[in-house]
Design a protein that fits this description.
CATH class of the largest domain: Alpha Beta
Strand content: 15-25%
Strand order of the largest sheet: 4-3-6-7-10-5-11
Mean pLDDT: 82
Largest sheet: 7 strands, mixed
Radius of gyration: 24 Å
Number of domains: 3
Number of helices: 11
Shape: elongated
CATH topology of the largest domain: Rossmann fold
Oligomer: single chain
Order of helices and strands: EEHEEHHEHEHEEEHEHEHHHH
Number of strands: 11
Length: about 350
């Protein structure tokens, strides 16, 4: 039994796609039934297993000049084991991701596209980008990092997004900074008049609610939740934002941003994880002092990590430096506001 595989590439027939690559299989006609019943399912299963075990991940950025995604090897070391996060939240995220990748048949049975949307929001330096890296490493998904500010219009957005691959993460960072007026709806409009073009109802947005310089919010919504969202499967879409309250409510609904994850200031549990990661210690006489200060002072995980990593071979000195920094920061806030700083937690 002889098979002939050929890699083919066609120029796009429409302006939505730049080009298309595919494999062509040739065999004798009397082998057709056996190929369809046994050989192709075997190829498909083997390909999926290879993807699941792939050692090298890539991160892609879009090159507007060449109209194509450019990749580089993704070697970020972040994992859920090293992530400084509340244990319950970390467990929830892992279970949600694992549940998503197992449920292809379920999504098909209920007539929904096999995708999942996450919003990571919170102050700068709280670990949003690190969490994205941990998710990519956990799932073994490549990352497509899309800068909306560089996309000219909805047509280009469709062309860009439909050229991404399955089993990937689409990352749109700082989406609150990508909008001209993300909350600029007419406040006199009856919210019941809002609807979109899917058959479940929702929010229709006109083109004046747009992303710099020319992508409309409705254009983005149509890809992540409309007909264009079916152009691919097993995809994670991650938005990040420093200010959730600035986002248009149409973006926040389930089916677009299914899971909202608040990335807050450092907690005692997160500090202990950082100390274990950077200093290699689980206990220290200064831990109690640091934890007490963290509970009443606004400090980010990035600030804590910065002080620990600089003196990672001297735990005593590293913790002492961190304590001095927290006290200094608390004092500055007292002088500025006249009150003790209290960390906002959800």
């Amino acid at each position: 039994m002889r098979f002939e595989w050929t890699l083919c590439e066609n120029e796009a027939e429409t302006h939505y796609h730049s080009h298309k690559k595919y494999f062509q299989l040739k065999c004798k006609n009397n082998y057709r039934e056996q190929v369809m019943r046994s050989y192709l399912p075997y190829i498909s299963q083997t390909a999926a297993e290879i993807l699941n075990k792939r050692e090298t991940l890539n991160i892609y950025t879009y090159d507007d000049e060449d109209s194509m995604w450019e990749s580089t090897v993704f070697k970020h070391p972040a994992t859920f084991d090293t992530l400084a996060m509340e244990p319950d939240l970390k467990k929830f995220i892992i279970e949600d991701l694992d549940s998503f990748v197992r449920r292809k048949d379920y999504f098909q049975s209920v007539g929904r596209v096999w995708k999942r949307g996450y919003l990571l929001y919170g102050p700068p330096g709280t670990g949003k980008s690190t969490l994205v890296a941990a998710i990519a490493n956990h799932l073994r998904f490549n990352i497509y990092d899309l800068q909306l500010q560089g996309v000219r219009n909805d047509s280009q957005l469709r062309r860009i997004l439909t050229s991404t691959t399955n089993r990937s993460i689409l990352l749109i960072e700082d989406i609150d900074c990508s909008t001209k007026s993300s909350r600029s709806r007419d406040r006199n409009q009856d919210p019941k008049e809002d609807h979109d073009d899917d058959d479940e109802g929702g929010d229709q947005l006109d083109n004046k609610h747009s992303f710099d310089p020319g992508v409309t919010l409705s254009g983005l919504l149509n890809f992540i939740d409309g007909l264009w969202s079916s152009c691919g499967e097993e995809r994670i879409i991650i938005f990040t934002s420093n200010y959730k309250e600035k986002l248009d409510p149409a973006l926040l609904r389930p089916g677009r941003m299914d899971v909202h994850i608040y990335m807050g200031h450092c907690t005692p549990a997160a500090f202990k994880k950082l100390a274990l990661t950077y200093l290699g210690i689980k206990e220290h006489a200064l831990f109690k002092c640091v934890e007490d200060l963290i509970q009443r002072t606004v400090i980010t995980p990035a600030e804590v990590a910065q002080h620990l990593i600089m003196k990672s071979d001297e735990p005593q000195a590293a913790l002492g430096s961190l304590i001095e920094f927290i006290i200094m920061k608390d004092t500055e806030m007292v002088e500025k506001n006249g009150v003790k700083t209290i960390s906002k937690r959800l």
